[in-house]
Amino acid sequence: MALAARTGGRGACLAVGRGAGPGRLVAMDAIARLLANPGDLPVRGALPEVRAAVERAGVAVLTAPPGSGKTTLVPPLLADIVRAGAGVGAGSRARAGAGAGRIVVTQPRRIAARAAARRLASLLGQEVGGDVGVTVRGESRTSPRTRVEVVTTGVLLRRLQRDPALPGVAGVVLDEVHERSLESDLVLAMVADVRETLREDLRVVVMSATLDAAALGAAWDAPVVVADGALHEVDTVWCPPERPLVRSDERGVRREYLQHVIAVARRAVAERAGDVLVFVPGAREVDDVVAGLRRAPLGGLAGAEDTADGRRSEEPEVLPLHGRLPAAAQDRALRAGGRRRVVVSTAVAESSLTVPGVRVVVDAGLARQPRTDHRRGLAGLVTVMVSRAGAEQRAGRAGREGPGAVYRCWSEAEHARLAPFAEPEVATADLASFVLEATCWSRDGVAGLRLPDAPPRAALEAAEEVLRGLGALDGDGVVTARGRAIAGVPTDPRLARALLDGAASVGPRAAAEVVALLAEDLRASGGDLSAAWRAARGGGAGTEWARTRDRLLAVVQDADGGADVAGDAPTRAVRDAQARDTPRVSDAVVAEVVALAHPDRLARRRAGSTAYLMASGSGAVLGEGSALVGQEWLAVADADRSRGRDALIRSGVPIDEAAALAAGAALVREEVDVAVEGTRVVASRVRRLGAIPLSSVRLSRVGPEGAAALRAALRRSGVGVLRWTEAARGLRARLAFLHRELGPLWPDVGDDALAERVQEWLPDGTTDLARVDVLALLRGLLPWPDAAHLDELAPERIALPSGRSVRVEYGADQPVIASRVQDFFGMHETPRLAGGRVPVVAHLLSPAGRPAAITADLAGFWDGGYTAVRADLRGRYPKHAWPERP
User: Is pLDDT of 675 > 80?
Assistant: First the structure.
């Protein structure tokens, strides 16, 4: 396994913790009380089976419906198993302190992790930070008494990379693995690796609402537990638009479709009791729908004074919910209040997160998925229809606390055509960070991990090329010291490189501020990143951008590199440094950091055009009204790949040519370009930044260094630009026949093959292809001494008994000869070529030159078909001889 490759073999099980003290006994008492009285959560019936599986095998796979309580009850169950010091299967060794150690529970998102920790702590009658803690990016609330810690998948990934033994951890609950994010797939494989090679005592429960439990159980060699706890009934209301609407385009969800979603939400508020949860794909759509619902009164249930849960049917409160909101705003949406609520959310509320009070779901039917164009070097999120599994997850939110309803903004017929499951990220996303993490994990990299799905080969190769360009991998694909430093920054490797290198050139704070701008995907009107930087600074210290900036600054200023950056707040020294370091906003600073992050997106305006060519080779255009119009060079931060031929530049900053060349130095190269214009070979020595031409000098001839370019030029134009005489075409056809029938001894003379061997047959320095003697050049390719048998193996002509000789046509699948029937009289057997391997096809013609018969078996024809041909032709051509036995 990958970890064995990293550690050099199988490690001994490690003891964790120091036994159970009085504080822990109190903690376990609280957990035991919860398990003894789990309430009406449907998953409670499966807990004995989960306990038995973990006690027997040390690992279990649990699948349970959405909202069944698995996230709430399984982590305490695992903590109780650990407290009891249960064995982990036959052959396992008992350890001192087997009942000690923390249970770590993963959630795919920060908001879900905080909500899960808060709910479990409240069931124990505590605040978060006691028996139940939480650690997410930028926040950690734990204490020495914490027994269950809820973390994001990324936090556990960082801990595994720092110490695969997971000291102090007795069990891991991997929740919502069906979401199939890159981090989720990585952590799933890494934890399996740890259990197999280092920590066989580590208890693991893998959980999801929708997964192929049998396949996962087989991969883990684990018992599978299926919880059939029934949720409350959820009615489905189909609400397609009255007329066909385009749901989304390259700019996102269309406004007219959002208006339809708003109308359906208003209908749901009027028709059903309880809080309403509206699903839309992104933060912008959340804001638009919230604004649309707030624009006019929603009212309440017609003719009703009170809702089903006892709250007054006054004007509902409309609240947003997405990952970019401050924690306080997220918590507000996740806490039931005195008023009825309409919560408009992204997919953060789709799974592992219960919004209390919800009895109605309005589903726009859209989701965001990553897509990467490896040829262009562009990645981004696209809007797609939700999968059927995703739609079921969303609908399940309405049946969590009682009977409910889901209003789907599409038709039942459309629903039947939805994909069963969403594509896993590994199949569609940029893999640079994924490959770097896997390579840091072990020398075997991705190949050493038991992943649910193998990544696409092209995506892996593109990621490896990016990482080599960053200096993160060496030529053999082994992670470098620089690569480990990049991996230690909790962001995309490109942004990590920009942070580390930019800190030395523009200063740590400026680098952190711009990288935070890129990481949080903040944009200003017109796509001007300098304007976005100024706007972000004006937002104050409580914004997500400010928190990301502070975290990145803490990383770059941490000389030891040992802090848990996923949870630690900036130190006093860092805050003091931040106060002293206030960089001036300028295009040059932003451009340098952006170019360090994305040198392949440096762009130059095409001559005489407003369009751009990026270093990656992709064309790009500015949006209408962009503040960047007219700039010669741009450092592009984000470009939308969904437009078609040219990408749309969504954000960037002007950069001067010298700065572009410095940032993209690794992409600067000189090469010979060759083009075929008519029959002329035109060569130039071109200096480029990636695909962007910088200078060009015309050459008088094509030297050896231009061979590759000449081959490419001939492939583009085709060897038909040469002067092909009839004799040259005939020899080429004969050689092609022999190559096909006798193999590589005889040369391949197809277009691509001739272009590939151009240096062999085209005289050095040729500039006028019309003067090339193609026949002589083909003869030069003949294999000697076998060429002496050319006329025997593939003759140009064949002599017939009448004394005539006919040309052999080699263009078809079999060689063909054609002549009058009388010319074949006396030829008993069909001529065979290529050393007797291939019979010719004889076209026997009437005296008028029309086909009378076609055969590759003359002997059979004379014995059979000739009789009918003779009877027909002798009546029409009586003056010609028609013997019975020719």
Answer: no
What secondary structure does DSSP assign to 728-757, as a single string? HHHHHHHHHHHHHHH-TTSPP-SHHHHHHT
Q: What is the pLDDT of residue 300?
A: 65
Cβ atoms of 595 and 663 within 8 Å: the answer is: yes
CA 265/CA 540 separation, integer angstroms: 34
Answer positive or negative: Cα dihedral of 96, 101, 103, 104.
negative
> Contact at 8 Å (CB) between 840 and 854?
no
Position 357 scores a pLDDT of 86
Q: b/e map of 49-60 (b: 16 or more CB within 10 Å)?
A: bbbebbbebbbb
Rounded Cα distance, 292 and 263, in Å:
9
Query: Does pLDDT of 20 surpass 80?
Result: no
Helix (H, G, I), strand (E, B) or coil at 692: strand
Assess contact for 400 and 67: CB atoms under 8 A.
yes
Radius of gyration of the chain (CA): 36
CB 387 within 8 A of CB 399: no
Residue type, 736: A
Q: How far is CA 823 from CA 236, 577, 871, 886, in A?
A: 82, 101, 18, 10
252-255: Cβ within 8 A, 24+ apart: 252/282, 252/284, 252/285, 252/383, 253/280, 253/281, 253/282, 253/285, 253/364, 253/366, 253/383, 255/288
Kindly list the distances between the CA atom of residue 43 and the CA atoms of 56, 74, 348, 402, 501, in Å, as whole numbers in the listed order. Answer: 20, 9, 22, 16, 50
- What integer pLDDT is reported at residue 571 of this predicted model? 44
Determine the pLDDT at residue 112.
87
**Cα distance between the two ends of the chain:** 78
| Structure-block tokens of residue 831 | 């001529």
Q: Give the separation between CA 482 and CA 473, rounded to whole angstroms.
A: 8
Contact 517, 593 (CB under 8 A): no
Note the pLDDT of residue 677. Answer: 72
Q: Which two tokens stand for residue 777?
A: 């050049």
Q: Are strands 59-63 and 224-226 parallel, antiparallel or unpaired?
A: parallel
Burial class (CB in 10 A: 0-12, 13-18, 19+), 484: middle
Cβ-contact 701, 767 below 8 angstroms: yes
pLDDT tens per residue across span 39-77: 778 888 899 999 999 999 999 999 887 777 888 899 999
Identify which of 166, 211, 156 has the alpha carbon closest to the alpha carbon of residue 187.
156
**pLDDT at residue 66, as a whole number:** 72
Q: Other C-beta atoms within 10 Å of 17: how many? A: 19
* DSSP secondary structure code for residue 447 in this structure: G
3-state percent helix, strand, coil for the chain, nearest multiple of 5: 40, 20, 40
Question: pLDDT at position 322, please?
Answer: 86
The Cα 847–Cα 63 span in angstroms is 83
| Residue 772 DSSP SS3 | coil
Closest CA to 269 of 335, 361, 357, 333: 361
What is the residue-wise DSSP string for 196-237?
Answer: HHT-TT-EEEEEESSS-HHHHHHHHT--EEE--PPPPPEEEE
pTM (2 decimals)?
Answer: 0.72
Tell me the pLDDT tens digit for each residue of 685-719.
Answer: 899 999 999 998 887 777 666 667 777 777 777 77
The predicted-structure confidence for 179-233, as pLDDT tens digits, reads as follows 788 999 999 999 999 999 999 999 999 988 766 666 777 777 888 888 876 678 8
Q: What is the pLDDT of residue 692?
A: 94
